[in-house]
Amino acid sequence: MKKGKLLSAAIVAMLTIGGGGSFIQAAESYTLDGIIVTGDKEYDRFGNVITEQSYYRTGGDVDVITSQTLEKRHYQQLGDALKSVPGVQVQSPGGYRGGEYGYTQTHSIVTINGDARVVVMIDGRRMDNKAGGVVAGNSGSGSKAMVDINQITSMDNIDKIEVIKGPGASVYGADATGGVINIITKKGTQKTSGSVDFSAGSWKRYNYGFSLSGSNTDGKLKYFMSGRRELSGDSHYKDGVTGENHTWEQTGYRDDSFNARVDYDFDDTHKLTVAYAHLQGDDDYPLTAADYRYINPTDWERIKQNYDNDITGDPLNPGYRNIWLMWLGAYNAYNKNNYDVTYSFKKDHGMESFVRLYDQRETYWGSFGGGDGDMSAPVPFTKEWYEWGKTHYKGREHKSWLHHLKNNGIEIQLGKSFGKHDVLSSWTFDKSKYFNTSTRTKQTSSVKRDSVLGYLQDKIHVTDRWEITPSLRYSYYSDFAQVSKAGESSNTGSSSSTITPSINTQFAFNDSTSTYLGYSKIYRPLRVGDYDRTNGKELAGLEDEKGDVWTWGLRKNISDKTSVSIHYDYTNMSNAVARYSVWDKSIKDFKLKYVNAKEVKKSFNMSVSHKMGEHWTLDLNYSHANDDWKAKNGMVFDPDLKWTNGNVNSVINKLRPQNTYTANLTYENAKFSGSLLMNYYTGLSRQAYTDNRFLVMDLTLNYDYSKNISLYGTVTNLTNEAWENTYTSYLGMGAWPQPGRAFMFGAKYKF
Fold first, then answer.
1. How open is the CA angle 568-692-244, to the nearest 5 degrees?
2. What's the pTM?
3. pLDDT tier at 8, thresholds 50, 70, 90
């Protein structure tokens, strides 16, 4: 038998085995109007979880964290919830909030299958600012994230979380190469209900939360509101370099949030929604964890002397990052206010038609603290050190940076069913602004950018078991209108417009087996900071990122208790942006440069879910990601990275977990539930991290004491693993450790 026929036969065999049952394994499930209902989830005939936003999806590797799961797991932050999703990793050094605005390593950044180009949305609306961002101002390596995941919304406001893995999610944006996280918020209820929540735990952490929901007498007006305060002292961690446990000073935080939403139903099809969301934080800011190997009188004097002689960075000045300990009292703060007004006037075949007005305002400020460059500083963490710190602390009234972000716009969406065709079109007109005020001169520079984003799809129901969805996305970005601190106006870069097509299909072989296949064109515009990336005195001359992506997946229910899903995506970026040391012919040496290069990215996910008896369920997952970068335009792409023997692909693939193995064991009965989550990360560089593999376990327990009272407890990093997922050669190994073992215990009262 020829190779092609053998492969075909193998695929057919895999699709036909175990043909009984449905996609849903839960014992108590039923079918209603072609929809399979089980627990708190609804599935269509292809095995897709149905949500308020699922009309956008056309197959793909999708995980939905339901309200029931959120209720029983008691996640404190959005990043905690996302850690349970296979292929998703949250980079949150030390567990603290935020950091110096403009550097991804000091923020809570989410990646999907190793890609930080992830679009984050609330109720289908993007939360990033087109003119700039405080997370990363350019598209260089490690700086392609768009938002801080823990500064989006509070957990009290979340009803469901959709995670769409892979660039096939580009229906939400031509730049969603990593995937999409869509947060669906809570709505008001007919009957008055609410909750009061309190928890306390390690590191002086306290969380206070409340929610209230209800309606007026005729039930047409529904309301929901929630509020939360989160407090924490300095976090602890285990140092992978020394094996010792330490307190990471200046990692405390205080965050507050308030959310309100009102829905008024004029009739069955016409509805008005007004929503407001507020977030604010006043958090300590650690620049890096200390390197305790070099905290002694001899090394401290050497580090200071070398710093004074412009010898910086860990490779040249071991323990260099300890110099940053002198930035005493560093902090960062933010204040965010989001307004949404949506008028919905029709719903056809699950597609909603609406007009939405939104206004998003964000302010960020903070300080590097005191003691910068004061060579009189004594050895850190000694009695003399803390006395010295009292005279150098500048206080919360001092600001080193001040940023304002504004964007407002209008979204229009129309959905209409025509026989076998479900046609959906959406348009967003956005005006974004980014203001940077000099705290010393009080002068303000600004960047403005307008955008028009349009989307049109036709979901064609060829048969009851086969759908084809062709679509087109239109993207227009104006040039950057810049005003310098001196008041000089200029336009940077040129405007751009492009049309990116995609086509997706899904097919159900029978009630237990389905497959999907998709193709999408990628377009990701440059950021503000990209236009002045330099190689010496010359501008980088970067171009927008472009490429193609193919996705394929298979879902199979092997039995009533066991299901399997497989996902694969292949991304071919013809014009990706990278930052590396490259050979410069003019100086005959290696030099830092931002470049356009070719990138081939492959990722693979496999999930197995098995129900073990009446109460136990085991979910097993494996995720793999790999990149292959190549030079273009005659450039010699040979980075001078000695610790990787000049291998750029080794740098990329081994500075993140190349393989992630996930096991989630859950127990459910009438009153008690629990979950043990195990993430095993492998494929990391031993030259960058304290180990090349890490096993991290999280435990959650919930007990319904009565109808109204729930008691719960969580243990994160159960074994107190010393692990990291962020590295910079400048600061050295172990500069950004993840939090150590921590406990939280709480009670929730519902009425």
1. 140
2. 0.89
3. very low
